[in-house]
Amino acid sequence: MPVAGQTVGIDLGTTNCCVGVWRNNRVEIITDYHGRRAIPSYVAFNETERLMGDAAMSQNAANARNTIFGAKRLIGRKFTDPAVQSNMTHWPFDVVSGPCDNPIIKAHYKGEERHFQAEEICAMILMEMKEITEAYLEKEVKNAVISVPACFNDAQRQATKCAASIAGLNVLRLINEPTAAANANGIDHRGCEKNVLIFDWGGGCLDISLLTLDDEIYEVKASAGDTSLGGEDIDNRMVDYFCIGICEQILRDSKMPKDQVHEVVLVGGSTRIPKLQSMPSAFFDGMELCKRVNPNEAVTFGATVKAALLSGVKSEKLSEILLLDVAPFSLGVESIGGRMITFIRQNNHIPCKKTLTFSVCKDILPSVLIRIFEGEHSMTKDNNFLGEFRLDGVLPLASGQPQIDVTVYVDADGTVTVSAIERSTGKEKKVTVSHDKGLRLLSGRKRGHGYGTLEMYKLSD
């Protein structure tokens, strides 16, 4: 069904951003006021103004403590996350622990110390992309398909949606970056079935996905990667260990022999490094790598194709393309003894749903606490906690008697919904895992000393 308003595809990159629109039966990459197609993911503050993109990056050396970059590496993470602690050692700006263990970025703006969450910085970048696009098209942009790393967890995906919401964008879909790149590779090269490995190495993370492309059906077989390994982190030992190791993991997870991979597509600016081109080629026995798509724009291209599809654009090029993506992590609930009961396994196709029946472990229990986790470990303490809810009104039946049906559903965005029904009474409780705590914190600060509103910055620039 067509959606109201202009829709775009956005590659929200760690180091650069790019936006595209479907016009004249093709993807058109938007250029900024100076004709540039990629916008640095930088935001800077000084005594008189806020600077974005190239303007922010160019004054970094003179204003390092107030020039923010790499915010995507913080989004959806906790301050105590080892990845956050590691990144902090490389950043000149200050990051401190805030409410709910959220990392808070400090900067001085117009004589005051301001505090920002990563979602707010990413929202400023998204708003900049939105305004550049509106100036280019001379019309309002309301909707977007935004790319995210395939290995982003639920909190990171929800935080990305939060940033888009702050920027005034309605997110039609989050699309995994390698899947978007497959769109770019396949849209003009349909034909017989082939297996394609998308090797996506940008400035902030490494993503590898293996897909089967069969005319109009793009089926992801497996995805893996590292959100803390990008061009900024590369040294030879990392390249040797991570590239080959993740390629081997993808083949194991997809149960596909190496000789059945027909094509390897390089995506992301880091893949321009000769060492990173030679290694995948050598791993696949000298295979010639596919370079027919611009590695810096492939993700934007694919996100724009998906945006056109979701907004109801009619085109022979877009007809009936079906993307079958996968869950980046296993999903489950906690059972007795802190064990993880897995409902949906890593690399299951999404959307998907599974129901399991549980019994209570104690007699005369009036309510049941259901705790939701993602991860691959057998014990929940080693996995990522997503949320919890309590199902009240459980009848006092004997211990061990089945009575509660729990359902876990993952939609095409990767959003997780968990519901529970008490069989004998029909009482039901449902929760959609979201970034609500972050949203509440942001909205609660609108009149405070810190964030204010993005409109305030827009008017003062």
TrEMBL record:
Q: Does the keyword Signal apply?
A: no
Q: Tell me the PROSITE patterns matching this sequence.
A: HSP70_1 (PS00297), HSP70_3 (PS01036)
Superkingdom of this protein's organism? Eukaryota
Alphabetically list the UniProt keywords: ATP-binding, Nucleotide-binding
Gene Ontology molecular functions: ATP binding; ATP-dependent protein folding chaperone
- Which Gene3D superfamilies is this protein grouped with? 3.30.30.30, 3.30.420.40, Actin, Chain A, domain 4, Substrate Binding Domain Of DNAk, Chain A, domain 1
What is the name of the protein in this document? Uncharacterized protein
